Each structure stands twice: as C-alpha cells, then as structure tokens.
Amino acid sequence: QTVILHHLDQLEGPFADTLLQVLSKDPHPDRFVTTCENDLSSWREDHPDLFHTLVVLRLETIPLRERPEDLPELLETLLDSLPNPPSLMAADKEWIAEQPWRGNVPSLLSWLEYRRLEGPLSVGVELPAQVLTEAEFEALEKTNLKRALAKTGGRISGPRGAARLLGIPATTLTSRLKTLGISPEKSKKAHK
C-alpha cells in the first residue's frame, strides 16, 4: 500500500505529531511518497523525527514551469492516458505553455480532466478565414446548435446533453435557443 502526501512542507503542529504517531504503529502503509514545494531545512528542524521517518530517499525535480521544452511530450502522454481526451487546438497549446503550473504535473492533469468533463476547449477558437456578417454568423450558430441538439436527441442538460457537448451552461443554451427560435422538441422528433 502506498500513501501520497502532498505539500509535506506545509504540515505543521498537531498534524505532524499525529502523522508521526500513525507511522510508529503497526500496521501502517508500506510506502509513503511525499511532495513539497520548498526547501525542507527549516521544517526539518521543527520536525526531526518525522523528517527522518519519511525522508529515506530524496529526489529533487525541476518544476514544470522551468522546463517548458518538456511540455509538448508530457501533454501528449497525459492526453493519451485520459479516456475520451479533449482535443487541443494550437491556441490551446500556446495557452497551456504560458501557464506557471504551480502544482506541476498533477495540476496540468487536473486541468485536462476538468476540460475533458466540461466539453470542448474554448481557450482558442479557430474562426473561418472570411469575415461573417451578422446574418451569416447567426446562421452558423443556428446550424451548430441544431447539430448539437440532433446529436443529443434534443436533450439540453446533463452528461449527454447539448450544453455539455457545446461547453456552455444549460441556461445559456436555453436562452440562445429561445433567442434564435430553435425548438429542442423538433430535434427530439428528428432523432427518433
């Protein structure tokens, strides 16, 4: 059994004492993996017994924000590990590269998971090369909303709803449908 304890350097007072008591009793986990963001020198002085119990092998890694050249390969590896990974456009990848990722890889993975669950990414949007008139843009939006409704059988909300597919709140979708005069009921009938 392995227990991962993040931010060891932030563990203070009674929590540190309780952890030391747990580790001194049997049974306890076979392995503890700890992470920290800061140098443990001062923490080590405050908690010497716990430090020597936990820190058997110490690995120092360079933070993700200091190795942007690793990001493209890491991003592909993380995306491959996700079921139904989000698709990223060039603008999305540029945005990701600009972030400090204070939580390093777990922070990046968490963001990708969130985006996967929320639907299509909207950080960067690739627009048609030509400029659209208001009427052309409205027609394009209507077509897109109708496709989303057709794909979801007219369902607006929920995990299989058009709102999730479009990456917008269900209330926003309902409002747009009303404004554009689109009936989700027609999509339900067309889907059957």
From TrEMBL:
The keyword Transmembrane does not apply. SUPFAM superfamilies: Homeodomain-like, P-loop containing nucleoside triphosphate hydrolases. Transmembrane segments: none annotated. GO terms for biological process: regulation of DNA-templated transcription. InterPro entries: Homeodomain-like_sf (IPR009057), HTH_Fis (IPR002197), P-loop_NTPase (IPR027417), Sigma_54_int (IPR002078). GO terms for molecular function: ATP binding; sequence-specific DNA binding. The keyword ATP-binding applies. This is Sigma-54 factor interaction domain-containing protein. It comes from Eiseniibacteriota bacterium. The lineage of its organism: Bacteria, Candidatus Eiseniibacteriota.
